[in-house]
Amino acid sequence: MNRHTAAVLVAAGGAAAYALSKVHLALRGELGMPGFPAPPEAYEVYEPVSGQLSNAAMGAVMVLFVLALLRPPAGRLWRRPLLVVNGAGALLIGVGVLMFAARATGLSPGLGEPAQGAAAWTSLAVGAVWAVAWIVAVATTRAPDRS
After folding, report:
1. Pairing outcome for strands 32-33 and 36-37
2. φ/ψ (deg, to 5) at 26
3. Tens digit of pLDDT for each residue in 78-116?
């Protein structure tokens, strides 16, 4: 397995883990991320089940976009938008990991309470690996050989 394929599969696994974590939280009626509960006032604005299930659906869509990097379109007209969408997704996940890391360590108290237990640190580790793998997957995507 080459580096590109490995990166795509790890990134798709990260997106799948995100989706599954959101389903788990929806079933428990909770907002937030594992180890990072949402503040009580968030429940006044958001309904946990539908909110988390819509996040899970977004995770499933991310899996599909990442897996599309395994067989990118030959034409630039389709390949470039695929790379832009994947690149934007990877960067947003990376920024999210950095924001949650700032919250977890207490460096940014305005983002919420610091990390609560192993689930928070596991979420951060999975997110970091996911973001890096996704960036590598995008950076190593090449046009298919037409020969």
Report:
1. antiparallel
2. -60, -45
3. 999 999 999 999 999 999 999 999 999 989 888 888 887
If DSSP codes are grouped into helix, strand and coil, which group holds residue 36? Answer: strand
Distances in Å between the alpha carbon of 66 and those of 4, 20, 91, 93?
Answer: 11, 16, 13, 13
What's 141's DSSP letter?
Answer: -
- Rounded to a whole number of angstroms, the distance between the first and last alpha carbons of the chain is 21
Alpha carbon separation from 41 to 44, 87, 104, 111, 141 (Å, rounded): 5, 33, 20, 14, 43
- Of the CA atoms within 13 Å of residue 42, those in its CB half-sphere come to 15
The pLDDT of residue 41 is above 60: yes
What does the pLDDT read at residue 76?
Answer: 86
Nearest-angstrom CA–CA distance, 12 and 20: 12
CB 11 within 8 A of CB 59: no
Cβ density class 38-69: b for 16+ within 10 Å, e for less: beeeeeeeeebeebbbebbeebeebbebbebb
